[in-house]
Amino acid sequence: xxxxxxxxxxxxxxxxxxxxxxxxxxxxxxxxxxxxxxxxxxxxxxxxxxxxxxxxxxxxxxxxxxxxxxxxx
Length: 73
Known about the structure:
alpha+beta
């Protein structure tokens, strides 16, 4: 779980989420979390959809996808 702490980009380009400004902001804002490389960083993605394709249904489905940003690409 420490891959991200050893593999930051050295050329200034974003090759992984850990090279982004947001990742650096989180590390600066929450020092206890950012200081421990074994902490798990998760991303959440969701997209509401109607699986049947009809607008008359009173329900929809929203799948949730959790991404572990600590693992190598």
